[in-house]
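TA notes, week 10

Several of you asked for a full example with nothing omitted. So below is the full record: structure tokens for the whole chain, then the designed sequence directly under it. When grading your own attempts, check the secondary structure regions first.
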């Protein structure tokens, strides 16, 4: 009976991954590598392309000069985000960048001036700090005195209101007492008159 002899090396080789992976270096790294190895083929970047377009070079000329075809150049333009842009667009973009840089320089100058101004003011403040502290203490003392006087004035108004209320109540009570006294005095005069008439009547009766 024949036995099958297994070839492990062959079986192992059948499981080998034959997939080929490719890697693409960025343009700047590729250019550096070419310069290092002596391969001086030019690499086109976004800035160079825009500069050549502003000098009125055609895409055909640029592609040929850098050893590529038009589809490859179009792909690069799309990657750079400038696909479909004209020379006027590039000039406008350059102008906008110049304005942006000018604004940045202006803002940096303004910032430096503000920092210098703040430094000068800080030095002045340091010099006048004792006087400023004395003034602040006086202001705080006056504010405290003002609050105290305001509280006293408020308490005085409250007490004055109570006194006026009590005065009105007393005046009303006095008026009532005066009415009662007048009534009592009227009764007293009536009683005295009654007694006088009664005495006269008795005297008259005794004479009869």
């Amino acid at each position: 009976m024949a036995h099958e002899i297994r070839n492990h090396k062959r079986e192992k080789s059948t499981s080998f991954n034959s997939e080929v992976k490719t890697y693409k270096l960025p343009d700047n790294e590729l250019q550096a590598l070419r310069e290092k190895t002596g391969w001086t083929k030019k690499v086109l970047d976004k800035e160079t392309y825009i500069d050549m377009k502003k000098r009125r070079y055609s895409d055909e000329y640029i592609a040929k000069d850098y050893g590529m075809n038009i589809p490859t150049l179009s792909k690069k333009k799309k990657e750079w985000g400038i696909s479909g842009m004209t020379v006027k667009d590039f000039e406008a973009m350059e102008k906008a960048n110049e304005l942006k840089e000018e604004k940045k320089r202006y803002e940096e100058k303004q910032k430096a001036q503000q920092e210098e101004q703040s430094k000068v003011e800080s030095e002045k403040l340091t010099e006048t700090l004792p006087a400023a502290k004395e003034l602040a203490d006086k202001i705080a003392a006056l504010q405290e005195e003002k609050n105290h006087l305001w509280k006293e004035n408020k308490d005085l108004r409250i007490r004055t209101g109570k006194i006026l209320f009590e005065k009105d109540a007393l005046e009303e009570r006095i008026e009532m007492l005066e009415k009662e006294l007048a009534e009592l005095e009227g009764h007293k005069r009536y009683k005295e008159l009654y007694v006088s008439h009664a005495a006269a009547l008795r005297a008259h009766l005794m004479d009869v």
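The first helix runs from residue 8 to 14. Use that as a sanity check on your answer.
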